[in-house]
Specification:
The complex is a heterodimer of chains A (245) and B (491).
Chain A (H helix, E strand, L loop, with lengths): L5 E3 L3 H5 L2 H13 L4 E2 L9 H5 L3 H15 L4 E4 L2 H14 L4 H12 L1 E3 H8 L8 E8 L3 H6 L4 H8 L2 E5 L15 H4 L1 H17 L4 E4 L2 H14 L4 E4 H5 L6
Parallel strand pairs in A: 1-2, 1-3, 3-4, 5-6, 5-7, 7-8
Helix pairs in contact in A: 4-6, 5-6, 7-9, 11-12
Chain B lengths: L8 H9 L2 H23 L6 H14 L1 H14 L3 E5 L2 H14 L4 E4 L3 H6 L1 H7 L3 E4 L2 H8 L16 H11 L8 H18 L2 E4 L4 E2 L5 E5 L3 H7 L3 E7 L3 E2 L2 H16 L6 E5 L13 E7 L3 H5 L23 H4 L10 H12 L5 H5 L6 H5 L6 H14 L11 H14 L2 H15 L33 H11 L15
Parallel strand pairs in B: 1-10, 2-3, 2-4, 4-7, 5-8, 7-10
Antiparallel strand pairs in B: 6-9
Helix pairs in contact in B: 2-12, 3-12, 9-10, 15-18
The chains are: A alpha/beta (245), B alpha/beta (491).
């Protein structure tokens, strides 16, 4: 059976700040022969507004997303928190609008996070990728706790040639990003990301890998200011095998 | 700390983060108890225990009026008295009146956060009545003139050296930092108070309608003494802290002690349902149960927040929250700190007044995972933020931050139109250029109050966005060229 066409849901931060993460995801799917679509009209899923309590604006973004994506066979996104937004919070936003809620549930059912889609839907754990180094994996809050995805990224990393995995202490502790929280309460946010960075450094790894660029942006931004030189990468970048031998 | 001490969240948080003693204590507390509770839940013999107990809890809340009536009938049948207090003033008035009538000079307390919520100590003290905390941690913060910074471990912000100095100063003992010596000193001081008190004032962990009894759990035994030695025992109870059946009560107590301290059972569990009966070896001559509303009915009536009344105050969410783990309990300006405090304090005492509690968390979800009754505190924090965003007359909430609201209106416009969105990206890309440093990151922005770049570098926007790269890829690939303008339903 030919692979289902994947419609790419490329979160706004990847689109604007980390396009190489989106490209890496495209490379991985190309390698697997998965046909791709990318609706160019997509913008943001509405998560920043939702988490800040601005639910009217979030609802408008959700409607737009559903309009754009509801014909897709499968929707795949390189961000756990955006998938959590679509899967868990879209149906909540439309709790009192039965028709929209049903449409939201339909879209929710076929929206997947990148590592989840590879492992749970396509059944692939070995992508033939090679990457040298010692990686430590950061569990993003919404990916690990809302979606329950902890093992899939680790399974994929374990099959990368030349890469070893070193667990950090408290790998699923929040990095302190929290969207507008990081800007509204910078001192608390910095205390949290410093804890995270200390755990990363103590793991002995030379690469931090995550599945959500918002956490990675926070960790990388603080590391850069502290003068730490570890590499901070999205899982897709490792799987695309930037350093293939 | 009485509910509704106004105060600056950020300033108190900063103070907590700058207190090395607190930081050390919180770190070991969280390493042991927060993670420990998660492990306990994973290895429960009945994996559905928590969700089953939660369902029962919600069912009880749905019939709270009936359940409380049964409880009160049970207590009265045994010769106890029950008073339903609408608010703090009514509860304080009842207790003060009782103390006056019985000529009470000294009150010994068993740990009760509700007593802090209603501020009963100050009311009694204003009458010249001495009020003494007997829970060791509460006793320490009381004589230090401080307030509890953890639901279960009130003096977690102090170490044994500070306590040693405090005891030398207040109890007149030679300085020591040896915990057994300090505990002995506290024991000696407290025994005298317990033996001479006229009233014992305790809280209630979980009452039971079926048996008509309240329950009190503790590890030191002082709470048991406070409830049995004085002639008069007054128990304060939040109106939601009741189970319908003995089986419900047993399961809740089990979850409470495991969530709080990983204990299958605490050292003492007392069941109290009235004054001493003929032939009883001990117990008070009078028992009064004060059931307090103080804003809980309003929470009960709102389906969005009713769930928070299922809370059994075990403190597990404090033991795992990364924000509480750094800022400590005093930043919450309430007897209820941590994630549960961030939800319940605004609901009880004003959402606008405690806006920082609603907004000052990361929504990481760790509290939801560790909660013995599976309360979804992050969901309720978002619901509180929604009230702050638009205002809510039902809750008396005014829109909180007009600038933020305007920001999200503009944001909504931009993300609603992909061409506008793309244009904004292009403009921002041009504007950022002068700020990008040699390391490819945006450094500190002088003159700008910028929460991000004060402590972190900012990733600049890429010269070519993903959508532009995708378009280029499609144009270079004739096989997919027909997809190059994939803009279904594009607007």
């Amino acid at each position: 059976m030919p692979a289902a066409t994947v419609t790419l849901f490329v979160q706004c931060l990847v689109d604007a700040l980390y396009p190489e993460v989106g490209e890496a995801m495209v490379q991985v799917f190309d390698r697997l022969g998965v046909p791709l679509l990318y609706p160019e009209a997509q913008t943001c899923c509405g998560q920043p507004a939702y988490n800040s309590g601005h639910h009217r604006e979030a609802e408008a973004a959700a409607r737009r997303f559903i309009d754009l994506f509801e014909d897709a066979e499968a929707i795949v996104c390189p961000s756990g928190s955006c998938v959590a937004m679509v899967r868990r919070h879209y149906p909540e936003l439309f709790a009192h609008q039965p028709i929209m809620r049903e449409r939201a549930l339909q879209v929710a059912r076929k929206t997947f996070e990148f590592s989840e889609y590879l492992v749970d839907v396509l059944g692939v754990v070995d992508l033939g990728a090679a990457f040298s180094g010692i990686a430590t994996y950061h569990d993003s809050c919404h990916l690990a706790r809302t979606l329950g995805i902890r093992e899939q990224p680790r399974q994929l990393l374990r099959h990368v040639q030349g890469l070893s995995l070193a667990e950090m202490n408290n790998s699923d502790a929040c990095c302190g990003f929290g969207g507008t929280f990081s800007v509204n309460y910078p001192e608390i946010s910095l205390a949290l990301v410093d804890d995270k960075i200390d755990n990363i450094l103590n793991s002995g790894a030379d690469i931090v890998v995550g599945c959500d660029v918002s956490c990675l942006m926070n960790i990388r931004g603080r590391m850069s200011r502290r003068g730490e030189n570890l590499r901070v990468l999205h899982l897709a970048q490792v799987l695309a095998g930037e350093e293939r031998a | 700390m009485k509910l509704g001490q106004d105060g600056d969240y950020v300033a108190a948080a900063r103070e907590g983060m700058g207190n090395p003693c607190l930081q050390g204590s919180l770190r070991s507390l969280q390493a042991r108890y927060g993670k420990g509770a998660l492990d306990v839940w994973k290895t429960l013999p009945d994996p559905n225990l928590r969700s089953r107990v939660k369902a029962r809890r919600m069912q009880t809340l749905a019939h709270l009026d009936r359940v409380l009536e049964l409880l009160s009938q049970g207590v009265e049948a045994r010769g106890g008295q029950v008073f339903f207090a609408d608010n703090a003033e009514a509860a304080n008035g009842y207790i003060l009146d009782l103390a006056r009538k019985r000529g009470v000079k000294r009150v010994v307390k068993g740990k009760s956060m509700l007593s802090a919520e209603i501020g009963v100590d100050a009311v009694l003290e204003a009458e010249g009545i001495e009020v003494v905390e007997t829970d060791l941690g509460e006793f320490i913060v009381q004589i230090a003139g401080s307030s509890a910074s953890h639901i279960i471990a009130p003096c977690i912000h102090m170490d044994r050296r500070q306590i040693g100095r405090l005891f030398a100063d207040k109890l007149g003992i030679p300085y020591s930092e040896d915990p057994p010596t300090l505990t002995q000193a506290a024991r000696k001081a407290l025994r005298e108070k317990l033996l001479t008190a006229d009233m014992g004032l305790t809280g209630c962990n979980i009452a039971c309608a079926e048996t008509g009894q309240i329950s009190l759990v503790s590890n030191e035994g002082n709470i048991r003494m406070a409830s049995t030695m004085p002639k008069l025992h007054v128990a304060l109870m939040g109106m939601e802290r009741v189970a319908a059946t003995l089986e419900d009560q047993r399961e809740l107590l089990q979850l409470l002690t495991q969530g709080a301290a990983l204990q299958k059972l605490s050292t003492y569990v007392s069941f109290v349902g009235g004054p001493r009966r003929k032939g009883d070896p001990d117990g008070p001559e009078e028992f009064h149960l004060v059931i307090v509303d103080n804003g809980r009915s309003r929470i009960l009536a709102d389906p969005e927040f009713r769930e928070v009344l299922a809370c059994i105050r075990c403190g597990a969410c404090l033991n795992i929250c990364p924000v509480y783990g750094r800022i400590g309990g005093h930043a919450y300006h309430s007897p209820y700190s941590g994630p549960i405090g961030a939800v319940v304090t605004p609901l009880l005492h004003g959402i606008n007044r405690h806006a920082d509690l609603c907004k000052g968390e990361t929504l990481c979800g760790a509290c939801r995972d560790v909660c013995p009754v599976e309360n979804d505190l992050p969901r309720m924090l978002v619901a509180l933020r929604c009230k702050l965003a638009y205002g809510d007359p039902g809750w008396g909430v005014r829109p909180h931050n007009r600038l933020e609201a305007l920001g999200f209106k503009i944001w909504g416009r931009i993300v609603g139109h992909s061409r506008l969105y793309a244009a904004m990206l292009t403009i921002a890309r041009a504007l950022q250029r002068p700020f990008v440093g040699r390391n490819g990151m945006i450094g500190p922005l002088p003159g700008l109050k910028n929460g991000w770049t004060a402590g972190r570098d900012l990733q600049p926007m890429a010269e070519q966005s993903f959508r532009e790269r995708w378009r280029a890829r499609q144009n270079n690939n004739p096989a997919t060229a027909d997809n190059s303008r994939e803009t279904r339903h594009g607007r």
